[in-house]
Amino acid sequence: MIEALSLSELPASAQALRPAVRAFLDETLAGRPTDRLARSWMGFDADFSRALAQRGWVGMTLPTEYGGGGKDAFHRFVLAEELLCRGAPVSAHWIADRQSGPLILKYGTAAQKQFFLPKIAAAEAFFCIGMSEPQSGSDLAGLRTRATRSADGWVLKGQKLWTTNAHKAHYMIALVRTSGAPEDRHQGLSQLVVDLSLPGITIRTIGDLTGDAHFNEVFFDDVQLPHDALVGDDGAGWAQVTAELAFERSGPERIYGSMVLFDAWLAHLRASSADELDLALAGRLLAHLAPLREMSLALTALLARSQSPVIEAALVKDLGTELEQAMPTLIADALAASPGRERPEMLLRTLAYVLQVCPSFSLRGGTREILRGVIARGLGLR
Ligand SMILES: Cc1cc2nc3c(=O)[nH]c(=O)nc-3n(C[C@H](O)[C@H](O)[C@H](O)COP(=O)(O)OP(=O)(O)OC[C@H]3O[C@@H](n4cnc5c(N)ncnc54)[C@H](O)[C@@H]3O)c2cc1C
Predict the structure, then answer these.
(1) What mean pLDDT do residues 51-57 have?
(2) Gyration radius of the chain's alpha carbons
(3) Contact partners, residue 52, CB within 8 Å, separation at least 6
(4) Angle of the 73-86 helix axis to the 259-271 helix axis, nearest 10
(5) How far apart are CA 158 and CA 222, in angstroms?
(6) Nearest CA to ligand 1 atom 20
(7) Protein residue with least CA distance to atom 7, ligand 1
(8) For strand 171-177 and strand 127-130, is the pairing parallel, antiparallel, or unpaired?
(9) What average pLDDT score do residues 290-312 get?
(10) Burial (CB count <10 Å: 0-12, 13-18, 19+), residue 296
(11) How far apart are CA 17 and CA 76, in angstroms?
């Protein structure tokens, strides 16, 4: 599949990674049903993450002095592409690998880097993102969770919402108010790393439409944090979180969310003699995917040059999630248009899962409307 999408060449050293990853996935994922594989970066499997880490495939872009792979963003792109297209269960380490590690590397103290980065690269420390709150999703700058300085460090009070994997992660990087009031918006926000095993933290899981439980409400009731919980500068949280969102939005996970389903449908077509309409649809979807992959690669090139492609990432995420959401609907229509043909149960189960979960693709990581606002501002249109 990936070969069919490749319009331009990746660096040879990054491409060289592919066969080993494929061989590992062939062995590890053998026999897993496609409705399970379709969960991919929603699939939490700590043992799988540790097996990847043993091969040097977690924290690949972190410097070797911190236990990372010392590789560039293209290597991570190849790895991510292979993992996502195969439906590997990468959720346990994904957030730490994609954004918490790079954030700590960029803004953390020497001690924070020494403490957290080797654990991330070994898949021993899993992270979650504490941004959204009950009244502050899109309007993130209006958040109300507050950390107040005390003799021993910080006292944290408030609530986060929709926090993916908080119930299984070791740490949260939380965006909180450390001075001023919600009306001060971008001023007075800071990022703190929160050890989720501390007293005063209550985590309640929320079920989603598919029956899975991956996100949570997290309550902080006067949680005592040490001084060195602060990541970066006091009051600089908004600028830091904006840079973090570029990591969050720029990866190939924003184009490959329905890939396991697409592959399963193509396999079904191959086995059941596709008609012309099916072939036209398959070609149309591939023709959309190929330039999206190019754009995702172009973002990777910016990350490899240590740039922070905030607007470009919003654009690719918006276009990518549109295709990810169109795929299950178009495939469902195509299957319904040929009622006489046998439809394998596992394909239908995979389709049902992706149809149910895909509305969230354009919510998580910033909604479609918010991204379009970012793009419009970047183009000077608002
Ligand atoms: C699967 C999933 C996982 C998530 N994981 C995390 C996580 O790990 N950590 C985390 O912090 N958050 C997480 N979120 C939360 C996510 O970031 C928020 O749901 C998202 O930012 C939207 O916020 P909201 O739900 O409060 O909706 P609202 O902000 O209330 O938005 C509701 C609707 O109004 C629209 N809207 C809002 N403001 C505007 C505007 N100014 N202009 C035009 N339209 C507007 C939105 O686009 C949306 O359609 C997750 C969400 C999902 C679905």
Answers:
(1) 98
(2) 21
(3) 24, 58, 90, 93, 123
(4) 50
(5) 8
(6) 137
(7) 163
(8) parallel
(9) 91
(10) buried
(11) 10
Spatial distance between the Cα atoms of 274 and 345, rounded to a whole number of angstroms: 18
**Which pair of structure tokens corresponds to residue 278?**
């099916």
Contact 175, 206 (CB under 8 A): no
Ligand 1 centroid, distance to 226 Cα (angstroms): 30
| CA proximity to 216, closest of 130, 140, 89 | 130
Q: With contact defined as beta carbons under 8 Å apart, do 43 and 89 qualify? A: yes
**In 3-state terms, what secondary structure has residue 179?**
coil
Q: Is 364 close to ligand 1, i.e. is its CB under 6 Å away? A: yes
Cβ atoms within 10 Å of 367's Cβ, excluding its own: 15
- pTM, two decimal places: 0.96
Residue 244 — very low, low, confident or very high, per pLDDT cuts 50/70/90?
Answer: confident
Tokens of 316: 């690719």
Residues 6+ apart with CB under 8 A from 79: 17, 21, 57, 60
Are 172 and 163 a contacting pair, CB within 8 Å? yes
* Side-chain half-sphere CA neighbours of 360 within 13 A: 18
pLDDT tens track for 68-123:
999 999 999 999 999 999 999 999 999 999 999 999 999 999 999 999 999 999 99
Residue 159 Cβ inside 6 Å of ligand 1? The answer reads: no
